[in-house]
Amino acid sequence: MNAKPVTLGASDKLTFLLSLVPFLMDHDRVSVTAVADHFGVTPERVRDAVNLIAMSGVPGETRQYLHGDLFDIQWDEFETNDNIVLTHLVAIDDSPRFSAREAAALIAGLQYLSALPENGDRDAIATLMAKLTRSSTGAPSQLAVSRTDADVAIAVIQAAVRAGTQVEFDYLNSRGTAQHRCVDPLRIESVDSDWYLRGWCHLREAMRTFRLDRMSNLRSTVVPADSHDDGVLLPDTLFEGSADDLTVTIELPAAALELLADYGPVPHGPAADGQLSRAEVRVSHFHGLKRLVAGLAGVVTVVDPGLARQTVADWAAAGAARYETSAAAQTEQADGAPR
Q1: Overall pTM > 0.70
Q2: Which of 91, 112, 139, 277 gets the most CB atoms within 10 Å of its CB?
Q3: CATH 3.90.1070 fits 10-94, yes or no
Q4: Residues 157, 225: contact at Cβ < 8 Å?
């Protein structure tokens, strides 16, 4: 049942007019009836207000109201179809606005955020993107954040969290061992470009962290997840050590220790040259050092044990060899090309 339209006093009429213009700006095309329902007034009151707005403006340098100094609407739409479409704004358009490039960057960021599980109100994000598109100084470039395998996995896990059910998947750990896991999903976090699921692993009967790109055959089940309200806490750090972990000594600038906070580095004191610091980190396998070193190339040096150094050195040499092979192939192709 529609609410009875209210009677507007002089101050209410002014408030209505001041509220109507921003509302129309936020809607490219809106019917008189929709506006009346939104503000709780009669359609006749809306039509009178629109006619008044169309005769309002700010005088130009000549101190006269010329056509460009007044608001304008699509009169055919208004008179024939009872729709309101603003086509020209005055004064309001003088406020600072995002450039087309700035709006495109913000829209791309919002598209990315809308894929994250903690951002469930996608309608609000879509509305904000539409406002950015309309209010920029030019049409933003058509950008889209590509959907990756991680996005698909996040969507599956998010659905399981909403439903309060377990997820199951095949997981390849850092040692290269594949196992089937059933997990109560609790949180999804990212480190750089990598995404991780944190939850209660029923195989290990403990909290575990899983990299999404090592999962396969991920699916949501109908098995209810446990409540975990009995004192089981989710650790603050992303990576938790275990009794099977290996200890590695590394060298790096003291200021860079904070970059390894998730690895829980234990400072060892200054290195021999006095300019670097040594620290111990724990990894599940020496191959796990590859990502650490690659992420901080030129910053972290593996010192001990020798097998850890050799593992990283072999990996780096294999990568360099691939570049050399590729460069040699390009040179041969160039030498054999017709001149």
Answers
A1: no
A2: 277
A3: no
A4: no
